[in-house]
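Researcher: We're teaching a course module on how sequence relates to structure. For the next exercise, students receive a sequence and then see the predicted structure as tokens, so they can try to spot secondary structure elements on their own. Here is the exercise chain.
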Amino acid sequence: MARDLVYLVTGGCGFIGEWIVRLLLKEDYVTEVKIFDLNESEAIKLLRTASTAVTFVEGDITEYNQILSAVKGVDVVIHTAAIVDILDIFPFKKLEAINVGGTENVVNACLAMDVSYLVYTSSLAAVGPNTNNDPMVRVTEDTLYPGEPSLSYGRTKAQAEKLTLLANGQQTRNGYKLITCVIRPSSIYGEKDRSLIDRYKSAKANSNYINYIEPEHAEKNFTYVGNVAWMHILAARQMQLYPNLMGGQAYYAYDDTPFKQRFKLNHELFTEIDHTIQIGRRIPYWKIWLIVVIQNLLKVIVKPFWSLKPFMTLSILKLVSIAYCYDTDKAFRHFGYKPLFTWLESKQRTCRWLKQEIQGQKIEKEN
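Model: And here is the predicted structure for the students to work with:
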């Protein structure tokens, strides 16, 4: 495998992107990590002391010339930049411009600048749930699951996936080949997952009870952010050794986090730092459905004066009520992926961060 490689991570200041950058800085074959994002985070600024060169490039993924300039001299691109929007908060045109148009810009820049390898961060949402909300239970990458994704976000990720995979094997400007693959994470948890803090506060405000909507059969996949990032690192590395095997392939991201409903995962995490948290009662589907419908009506009424942010949509309500998960070892078979962190380590690291954040907010509030 080649050494002294230059990597570019789009969205490198984000939840997954920052982890990818940190792991890349530990790899001795990487000589420089370039980060392309709208704004440089404080965490990324602190990484400038690393022995491997860290270069921040401020830019917008929808501006082709900006990404073209960032890609110059790069060997491997890991493209994580996207809008993650499961509540349909953003207009579809904006989602499409960033998630699809931005990916098209990255692909074209790679071809123009002779980049050899591109790893794209997609999502389980690119596969489904479909508009019929058919369940998907313990499937693999080879399982046929027909139909269009029901979420606008999922549709844009599916389009971006297609662009990336169609680019596999295409010739670059000077006659080299671009090798591409796709990583599909599901629900990701870990340090800096702000939704965990919101859910913990919600439980505390509800007399220490976690109420829930999901039925018992509605299993989901959850993956620790460090393991999602590690899969990207291994995929980008092993593509150089097995381009014919990995090129044009999609891989679900997984680790040994148990299959379960989200409220059970939250309970297991929260009780590590607060033993008073308990699982409460299941809220009937019809009641949440009615609340969402009323909220949608209010949203239309107040639209001229106020932008009402939904706590849930009918699409998400349907999603949390069905089983939707995968069970695969394709990444292990193709490029030797094994989780970098066990379930116990993932839980401990997440809970340590969560405890620090909650204590910090308490101190800030008291002062």
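Model: If you want an answer key for the exercise: The chain has a mean pLDDT of 93. Residues 5-193+221-256+326-337 form a domain with the Rossmann fold fold (CATH 3.40.50.720).
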